[in-house]
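Listing S7. Sequence submitted for prediction.
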Amino acid sequence: MLVEAVLLVGPVVYAAVWAWLRGGLAAAFPLGSATGAATSGGFPPRPNLSVAVTGGNPPSLMVPVAGPAGLSHCSVLPVAEPGGNPPDVAAPATETADISHAHAPLLSVLIAARDEAAALPHLLAALRHQTLAPALFEVLIADDHSADGTAALVAKAAETMPFALRLLRLPPGTTGKKAALAAAIAQARAPWVACTDADCRPGPGWLQAYADLLQAHQLTSSPAPHFISGPVRLTPGGAWFDGLLGLEFAGLVGVGGACIARGWPTMCNGANLAFRRATFHEVGGYADNAGVASGDDEFLLHKMHQRYPAGIYFLADARAVVDTPAPATLRALLRQRVRWASKYPHYRTQAPRQLALLVLGANLSLALGLLLAFVWPALGPWVAAGWVLKLGADAWLLAPVLRLLRRLRWLAWLLPLQMLYAPYALAVGLAGQRAKGYQWKGRQVR
């Protein structure tokens, strides 16, 4: 009985934690609803401030207001030299719409780009089609020493964009995504910034979903938001394992959102997030982890949660989904995952480590049970019970997330993913801890 009990410990604990997290998703992912709510440990669903138009998106809650005076459509901005202070750019005065109950938040969209001339036209086209009024947001692209004409492409695109588009060039000696984002934040004019990646495709309601959440907060007594994590969906990369990757990635999105809902933030994705610019400076930005190439998203999430535990939100809104391309090859996938795993030793909170150990332990126990069942067939029913517990908990947690992403068909990949996950997770985890550095965008980074 001892062996049988040991084999069930991992799946039972895993299923219990997943049930707890699924409870956190209940408010964020209402069953049967394409558009969810924002959740932060008891934050109420977005109030019904407008009447939906049949067959379309809800009308905008925002009223267009004049943008910052004198804002040109494209300008190359100075960036501080290494070791110096960023240029002094004053934040604009708060702008309000001309209606009695509405506050019109401005958003600065930040994009770090290195050799992204092929991807940026698609992102800029997606931003052109945002339903949020162009006067309510600006786009800043920080060029990290591109050699493929990225800067020239941005300058030309700005001539036809309806929103303000600004280009920043990092000075010699300043490199990396964090440096690019920090430079853009120093130049941003809005109180809130939204981040995505150059190869991503946000839907037309992306910024409107964030604006609606900020507006809804002003009409409630809920805690003030400081960091908002948004949903990300993988698009096919042409590899045989696209379905497996899509399901795994959806799991990361769902667990990250559920952990936020339970007040236990673990993960988010830099392809879709927003935060209060003043809070970024208040927690020291990226200064204490500038030497780690990865983690511009999760380190900031953890620091803001430590300062404002009730101010972290997950935006479970179908309009807010951002598409990001899946790795096209197995080698690219492993490099990406090792890069992600390399930041784990630098976490200063226990929640991400505890979650990683729970997931790894449960998956290893299933794999071990399968091997033992071949040697001792009497263990078969116990092993089967563990598999049913684990897969059932996964399916229960994933279902509302996949509905939000409109990819419920990915559940068909659950069993194949489980068969492969234990060796995959163990190999990636060990490689991430031992990695001394990796190639990224033509550079060797740590």
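Caption to Listing S7: primary sequence and predicted structure tokens for the chain studied. The longest strand covers residues 107-113. The CA atoms of residues 266 and 352 lie 5 Å apart.
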